[in-house]
Design goal:
three-stranded antiparallel β-sheet
């Protein structure tokens, strides 16, 4: 799957956020200060029935997007939107024999879910959102559902690392990534903060251990270059994927974001990406979106503010400067960069207050 304070508006709040891009929205409780951004995100990407729409991917919906949207609803204290997204997901994606979610729903198809395989990152964010919602909205049933998913995720997707039986890895899905000679992994599926909070709330220490092993794995990969979208791991070691994207692209750009958000801004993977951003991202220059991991050569770039926000947060976190060049949020960008920009906003608020936009 190659998926990839802040808003200009006519209201006084929107004008303030445009004049001081994101500064007001990143002070205090985002449920109070960031409502204009959240309403804009919902208007652009959330259908009235609770379906999060990824316009660039056939207007499909996927477990990742539902989990992302539900997590954001907890941040912005929006119980109604959370419930709508949860109910849509339970009706349309919770159709497997186990508690995990089918990874994608396609509109207008006779069989909207042709593939019932899961996506472990979608399951992770979905369960994490349920944990946060249980506390935010005082709803015990959300925690019960999260416990079911966490247990199934451990049973299905947490497996021993080839050549290191004392360590585990997170498979991208139940099927399709175990081969005769190796496993194929997506490094961006590791979100240490989510894994640890979910483990603590649901009594699944295996997820916390897998997060620790994942951090070490990411450090090993970053020892020789940028973390790529996909890697293969065998008894003999690691190598870039031979069948999936070996570049640091739309998947891998989440790695530094998730590490910074998890209070791991000193991680080598963050420092590697920050060095590329520092060299390539200048005023008026598009942000890199696909990079050759060893040489650092930029293969694709984008002007979408969400990708620029990731670059600014990564550089600020690495340099430990005051203020980040995070641009104002715009809802005319695709779902994926828009959502990553809101995640950057949350990461700044929760863990990197010194990176509030300049």
């Amino acid at each position: 799957m190659n998926r990839r304070g802040f808003i200009a508006g006519a209201t006084a709040c929107g004008a303030m956020l445009l004049a001081h891009p994101g500064r007001a929205a990143l002070q205090g409780d985002l449920a109070q200060t960031g409502q204009a951004v959240w309403e804009s995100w919902k208007a652009a990407y959330l259908a009235s029935d609770g379906r999060v729409i990824d316009g660039l991917q056939q207007r499909s919906s996927h477990s990742e997007g539902q989990g992302y949207g539900m997590f954001l609803a907890t941040v912005f204290d929006d119980a109604t939107s959370f419930r709508q997204m949860f109910q849509w997901t339970e009706r349309h994606l919770a159709i497997r024999a186990d508690p995990l979610l089918a990874w994608r729903w396609l509109p207008g198809e006779a069989v909207p879910v042709p593939d019932r395989n899961n996506a472990s990152d979608g399951d992770l964010f979905y369960a994490w959102a349920l944990v946060r919602a249980a506390a935010r909205f005082n709803e015990r049933s959300y925690l019960t559902r999260a416990q079911e998913i966490a247990a199934a995720l451990v049973e299905t997707c947490v497996v021993p690392m080839p050549g290191r039986s004392d360590q585990t890895v997170l498979l991208p899905a139940e099927y399709g990534f175990r081969h005769d000679t190796h496993l194929s992994l997506n490094p961006s599926y590791y979100m240490p903060l989510a894994m640890r909070e979910l483990a603590a709330a649901t009594g699944t220490p295996e997820l916390a251990a897998c997060a620790q092993h994942g951090e070490a794995l990411l450090g090993e990969i970053a020892g020789s270059g940028l973390v790529p979208d996909w890697i293969d791991i065998s008894e003999g070691g690691m190598r870039p994927s031979e069948t999936l994207s070996p570049n640091a692209g739309y998947e891998a750009m989440r790695v530094p974001l998730f590490l910074i958000w998890s209070r791991l801004s000193d991680h080598m993977a963050v420092r590697r990406m920050a060095a590329v951003y520092e060299r390539t991202v200048k005023p008026g220059i598009d942000a890199p979106t696909v990079i050759e991991p060893l040489s650092g050569v930029v293969l694709e770039s984008s002007a979408d503010p969400g990708y620029q926000a990731l670059a600014a947060l990564t550089v600020c976190s690495d340099q430990r400067t005051l203020g980040a060049a995070i641009p104002p949020f715009r809802a005319d960008q695709p779902y994926y960069p828009a959502t990553l920009q809101l995640f950057a906003m949350v990461a700044v608020t929760e863990t990197q207050p010194e990176c509030v936009p300049l």
